[in-house]
Specification:
alpha+beta; 8-stranded mixed sheet
């Protein structure tokens, strides 16, 4: 299977859970994950970290599944596209759940034809269509994640690689 890479953005993690998050990432990647944690200014007593990773296609989904054990986490995981796969971004916000987006090479969210056709068939008003497009793009997730993203500007990034 072709390799890809991405980034795990751990935006908001209670400090007591940080070692467990590292163990979960290590379990997916097959090697220790020692992250450089820093304070999350948006949430006192919480931490944040970023980690670049390399592994087989589908690793972002496996990393997200491993982090599901802690529903209080706020995180995003990206996976770059390859010749064999589209890029994707998985975002998780407590109370809102997961949002999964296909991502183009330039970083734009890509919405598939079948999803647009389904929305067009369901939407009865312009407002419903506008709300549906916002849902497909993950607008509500981005709005909730943005304060955490800004809080992480300039934070250190850890490199993680999967053992193959």
């Amino acid at each position: 299977m072709p390799a890809t890479r991405g980034v795990v953005y751990l935006h908001c993690v209670p400090s007591a859970i940080a070692p467990h998050v590292e163990w979960a990432l290590a379990g997916v990647l097959g090697r220790p994950a020692r992250l450089e944690w820093s304070a999350q200014p948006v949430a006192p007593s919480h931490l944040r970290a970023e980690a670049a990773w390399m592994g087989p296609i589908g690793s972002a989904a496996r990393l997200s599944a491993a982090l599901r054990a802690w529903p209080m986490l706020v995180f995003e995981i990206t996976e770059e596209g390859t010749w064999a796969s589209d890029g994707e971004r998985l975002a998780y916000v407590p109370g809102r759940g997961f949002h999964r987006s296909m991502i183009a090479a330039n970083g734009d969210v890509v919405v598939g034809e079948e999803r647009l056709r389904g929305l067009a068939a369901r939407a009865r008003t312009a407002d419903e269509l506008q709300h549906g497009i916002a849902e497909l793009l993950g607008t509500a997730w981005d709005a909730e994640l943005e304060p955490y993203r800004v809080g992480g500007d300039g934070a250190p990034v850890t490199l993680l690689h999967q053992v193959v």
